[in-house]
Design brief:
The chain has 362 residues and is an alpha+beta fold. It is 38% helix and 28% strand.
């Protein structure tokens, strides 16, 4: 471990009390909203399980890093997996590290975990942005590693005006961006609204309903099928709204909500997290209309990019995005049950590819 850096493990009570120090560290880190206390504490409350492994990194008495992890079973098998809090519902994860200590901090946290490898069988770090400290630091001595590109993450750099952005889009898509709003306004009373404290609970419920309706129309479960996931979003939303990070948009036609869009405005980027649409109104392309509204608002707010987050779905390509990559790194000790890790991860990846291919045809 680097001289002057000290790692300690915190309990759940300390996690709850850590909100302000965590937020202060987040300001000094190259991190995402998915690494905020507001997001991860909500995740731990409603989706977490097993044993909390929350590591704090100090330089003397100053908090300079956090590794928010938990220990559970790998898909129910007798294999102990240590993974980042937020895994599964988050698009960018990793260690939260003060920029001045980022490289040495990542090394120190991994070294601490390696020294305690008898307490876990595999260390699974998912959705690491390429170039982030946890994605590029060297594997600790004594551990084996499997790493690969996990997700494509499209994003659109934003110019100073909507007109500049649309000028570089395809002709057909530009026409659609004009046609569908005009058609809506011609035939219906149109209301575009952003959630506030008074409407938030109802707007989150509507988002869940519309997201699930869209996926059920394709014969798929959707990302919000479980009660615990819905409880997580109801808990996280007011915390995110309080920090002015949440952008939850609603589109109503004749008083009926037909589309929702859950975005997150963090620093100089707006991220498209989740959308939902009533399939009965698909002919008016409400998802495209609502996304365009969110992009316009992002430009007006001075955001430098509109981030479509992970996944290379077809609808994102109409915006002619650039791409980043999220990586996954899995570590294990060359003894005991951890030796099964490469084979199990290989099976998991093959199954995931087949499921994505099947879902894309629905």
């Amino acid at each position: 471990m680097s001289a002057g850096l000290r790692v300690t493990r915190l309990d759940a009570a300390a996690f709850t009390a850590l909100r302000e120090p965590w937020s202060d560290l987040l300001e000094r880190a190259d991190a995402s909203v998915f690494q905020s206390w507001e997001w991860l504490h909500s995740w731990w409350e409603h989706l977490g399980g097993g044993q909390l492994w929350l590591l704090a990194l100090h330089a003397e008495d100053r908090l300079v890093g956090l590794a928010p992890l938990c220990l559970g079973r790998y898909f129910g098998l007798p294999l102990r997996r240590l993974q980042l809090l937020g895994t599964g519902v988050s698009d960018r994860l990793g260690f939260v590290l003060d920029r001045e200590h980022a490289a040495e901090g990542a090394d120190a946290l991994l070294a601490y975990l390696a020294e305690r490898a008898d307490g876990w069988d595999l260390l699974d770090l998912q959705q690491l942005p390429e170039g982030s400290p946890a994605a590029v630091c060297a594997a600790p001595s004594g551990l084996h590693e499997l790493g690969y590109e996990q997700e494509v993450c499209p994003y659109v750099p934003l110019p100073a005006s909507w007109e500049e952005l649309t000028a570089r889009l395809g002709t057909r898509f530009r026409q659609n961006l004009r046609y569908y709003p005009r058609r809506m306004e011609r035939d219906h009373a149109v209301e575009l609204r952003r959630a506030d404290a008074a409407s938030l609970t109802a707007d989150v419920e509507a988002m869940v309903r519309l997201h699930q309706a869209r996926w059920r129309s394709r014969g798929l479960p959707g990302a919000l099928a479980g009660g615990r996931v819905r409880a997580f979003h109801q808990a996280a939303a007011p915390r995110l709204l309080e920090r002015d990070w949440l952008r939850l948009y609603s589109l109503r036609l004749d008083g009926r909500q037909v589309a929702s869009l859950h975005c997150l405005h963090f620093r100089d980027a707006v991220g498209y997290y989740l959308g939902g649409m009533d399939p009965a109104w698909a002919r008016l392309s409400p998802g495209t209309v609502l996304t365009a509204h969110a992009v316009r608002e992002a430009i007006a707010a001075g955001a430098r990019e509109f981030d479509f987050l992970r996944g290379d779905e077809t609808y994102k390509q109409s915006w002619q995005p650039e791409q980043r990559i999220n990586r996954r790194r899995v570590f294990w000790a060359p003894r005991g049950r951890g030796r099964l890790t490469p084979r199990l991860i290989g099976w998991e990846r093959r199954l995931e590819r087949r499921l994505k291919a099947w879902a894309s045809k629905r």
